[in-house]
Amino acid sequence: MGHGASRLRRVVHEVAKFGAVGGAGVLVNLLVFNLVRHTTDLQVVRASVIATVVAIVFNYVGFRYFTYRDRDKSRRTREMTLFLLFSAIGLVIENGVLYAATYGFGWNTPLQNNVFKFLGIGIATLFRFWSYRSWVFRALPADESAPAPFEPTGPAAHEKTKQQVP
């Protein structure tokens, strides 16, 4: 199997893991959105922003510890800053769609709110996938991510090294 096929397989695997976390995040987002809408008097877009923020936190944990757990962890502050920046842009995209539908077109029934919330999530997800994989959860350089040949470590390895020295 060639390098291209193995790269394609890795990307498909990444998309599947991103989709699993993202799909759960969509459910969290919609659940919190509808819960806030039905238990408070908050306006639709404010309820949506709260739900988006809850989903962002949920997604960060899922992406860092599941989807991208093998990626570079050395710059956590940078990673978190970029994640929050791109998540905020995604929040604006997602809730901008809902805002335009609700206040621009007057589509404000519970069904319409959920349809446009879901549509906004979909558009923002495309942006988030690209930005997270390109900028936030950076791949390790090829030489660092390849498994090292087996080299024993610990006291036994140290003893063996001492024995080989003349």
Strand-pairing-aware structural class: mainly alpha
Question: Which consecutive residue ranges, at least 5 long each, have pLDDT under 50?
Answer: 143-166
Order of helices and strands: HHHHHH
Radius of gyration: 22 Å
Mean pLDDT, to the nearest integer, reads 85
- Count the beta strands: 0
Oligomer: single chain
Major β-sheet, in short? none
What general form does the structure show? elongated
Termini separation (Å)? 45 Å
- How much strand content do the residues show? under 5%
Supply the number of helical segments: 6
Q: Tell me roughly what share of residues is in helical segments.
A: over 70%
Description:
It contains 6 helices and no strands. The chain is elongated, with a radius of gyration of 22 Å. The chain has helices at 3-39, 44-67, 76-104, 110-136, 142-145, 155-164. The termini are far apart. It is an all-alpha fold and 166 residues long.
